[in-house]
Design a protein that fits this description.
This protein is an all-alpha fold and 162 residues long. The chain is 83% helix and 0% strand. The chain folds into two domains: 28 residues; 120 residues. Helix 3 runs antiparallel to helix 4, helix 4 packs antiparallel against helix 5 and helix 5 runs parallel beside helix 7. Keywords: Signal.
Length: 162
Amino acid sequence: MRFHLRFASRMAVPTVILPVLSMMLALPSARAATGDDILLDQQAIAQLEARAAQANPREQCFLYTELVHHMTEVAAHQMNEGDTQHASATLKRVEHYARLIHMGLAKDTKRLKNAEMLMHKTTYRLTGFLHSASDEDKATLQATLKQLDTVQEELLDQVFSH
């Protein structure tokens, strides 16, 4: 009797898991379904820029990281639409805000781990676009990615030093 129970339980796992796993892979990711990467319009980006500029120094790191993330999404959308001129301008603004993050890291920062995680996600996303970008866009993308990688490393160093 034990043999049959063990055999039955071993058979049940693959017959249950495989259909469930195939359904999960076929469905859109939960992250996409939650709208985590909402594409902000220019007005919302301008509001976030103003909030970050006027925030106290402890909060600026995270707010600028959030701004970099959203602007990277906008640049990606612009590239996908074939609007490389605006995408390049947006990426230059991303570099500017990455420099502001870099300069502000010496200040006592709030939500540092969240900023590092968001920067990691942003650099990963930008790396994906680098592989599919045209040759003329790669230089701007590489420069922006280099700046963001540096900022991410510094954020990570700050996270582990606190």
